[in-house]
Structure formats: structure tokens, C-alpha cells
Amino acid sequence: MRVLRALSELGTVRATAEALCMTPSAVSQQLSSLSHEVGTPLLESQGRGVRLTEAARVLLRHTDTVLAQLERAEAELEGFTRGEAGGVRVGAFATAIPRLVVPALNTLAGERPGLSTRVHQADAAEVYELLAAGEIDIGLSLAAQAPAGPDGRYDRSELLADPLDLALPADHPRARSERAPRLADLSGQGWIYGASGPWREITLAACAQAGFVPEHAHVASDWRAILDMVAAGMGLALVPRLAAAGHTPGAVLRVPAGDRPRRHVIAVVRAGAGEHPRIAAALDALRRTAVGLDQDNVQFS
Predict the structure, then answer these.
(1) 3-state SS of 45-110?
(2) For the chain, is the Cβ count within 10 Å smaller at the N or the C terminus?
(3) Phi-psi region of 269 (alpha: psi -120 to 50; beta: other; left: phi over 0)
(4) Strand bridging mode 262-270 / 138-142
């Protein structure tokens, strides 16, 4: 259609070819193909030259509109190529969403307003199934929940080492002491953690490292419920810092002395998918947000 418009303006095939840096035969071939596509002749002989048919003039009336729309389409597609358009779906476990996922996606929205995002809350282990099914593009999980052994289906990278803080009732003797409490000194206390899942495993591992098996006083996996039970004096708990945002009256968070237990938050994508510009942009926003959280953790500790 650009060739047809140029011919209508310049009058001859040769002049059209020179203007478009084409050969005359290439111009003729383009116009012949266009005639075949629209199903009617667009040129007719006139002496040694050619002239446009009435059908060609009808087509020309729509050319500017069509070409302008094609330019818009190319511009939009270029946005996809640069990672400035399209969508990214992030699956994450509950405690990663408020302080990690939401700030990262807000940053991304400010930097790339044409890029849409969608959050899918899922258990740490479930994100692998969602990635395999193509339902999410990035999964936030825990290193402890990664498939055993090498798995070529996924690429994983660590985002954050989330410290585990000790939640104590406000009237507990160690809640306000100047000396940081040691987990080993609390081995005879009742502990609150889940009946199964990653948090049970992480709590048991941290206590085992301190040299004891915790007494399972109450079973809970919701962090709000756990902190409320701690505040009521029903037991102690290890709480990831990402989960403990905000103040719970009656509960005090202390940094344990000695080896500080942590859970490792990782980003997972399908193998090779991290090279897509839109996914790479979202991963970068998550990493930058995680760095900020790491710095806050250092100050807290």
C-alpha cells in the first residue's frame, strides 16, 4: 500500500522505485501482489506507462488510515519487545505479598505503566505446579520447598534471607531483658507452630540447631493467630520478619542470640523465561525491593 501511494504521487514506476530504494521490477511485483490480494486490477496501461484504476483510487482513500494503524501496532509490539507492555503473573506465599511483592509491583507500575501485573497467592511449594501449568510467570517460594536434586525445568535465584524473630509474651522474663534471649534457654517452654508444612520444618530445624526439640503447645499456621496466642501467654513462636509487620499488643519480638535462624526466599521461573524483557523487569523490581528489606533487616538486628 505504501508503494501504491508513492506511485499515485510520483506517477511512474521508475520514479516510485527510486524514491523507495527499490528496483522497478520489485515495484511491479509488489503492485501485482496487492492486486491479487484485493481481487481486482489496480493498474492499467496508458501508452508506455500505467495509470491507477478506480479500484486503486478507492483503496488509496483508506491507505493513510490503514498505514497509521499499522504504525500504532508496530509501536505497541515494540513495547512488548522492550518489556514495556504485556503482562506478568506473580505467584507468592502469603507473607511475601505485603512487604515484597506489592512494593515491587508498585515500583514496576511506575517505571513501566504499560505492563500489567497479576498476583496469585499460593503455598510456597505450589508455585512450582503453577509455573509448570503456565498459570504464573514468576513464583516466590522458600529454598526449603525446592524440588530435591537438580530440575532443569526451572531457574531459581535467592531474593532474601528472611530472619526469624522470637515472639514472646510481653510479661515473659526474657521479653525485656538487656541480654538477647538464646533459643536453648527456652527449651522447656511451650511452642506454637503448624502441624505440617514449611513452617513446622523450619521451626524444628532452628530448635534442633539450638540443641532441643520444642514442646508443641499449640498448632497454628496463620501468623495473626500465632501472634495473638503469644500475646495471650499461650506459648512462644519463631516468626519470620516478613510476617511480623506491625505491632501486636501483648507480644514482643526479640532477635535471638547466637546463630540467627533465617528462611531463604527464592524467585523461580521456567527455565529460560527470565530472559523475556517483561519477566526480567519484574524480577529486577523484586530484587531491588528485597535488597531494601535486607538493609532494614541489618538495622533491626
Answers:
(1) EECCEEEECHHHHHHHHHHHHHHHHHHHHHHHHHHHHCCCCEEEEEEECCCHHHHHHHHHHHHHHH
(2) C
(3) beta
(4) antiparallel
Instruction: Read off the pLDDT of residues 147-169 as tens digits, 9 standing for 90 and up.
Output: 666 677 889 999 999 998 999 99
**What is this structure's pTM?**
0.70
For residue 74, the enclosing domain spans: 2-81
Q: Is the separation of the CB atoms in 92 and 122 below 8 Å?
A: yes
The confidence band for 281, taking pLDDT boundaries of 50, 70 and 90, is very high
How long a stretch of residues is the chain? 301
The contacts of residue 199 (CB under 8 Å, 6+ apart) are 193, 221
150 and 277 housed in the same domain:
yes
Place of cell 506459648: 235
How many helices (H) and strands (E) the chain has is answered by 10, 11
Q: Please indicate, yes or no, whether residues 257 and 165 belong to a single structural domain of this protein.
A: yes
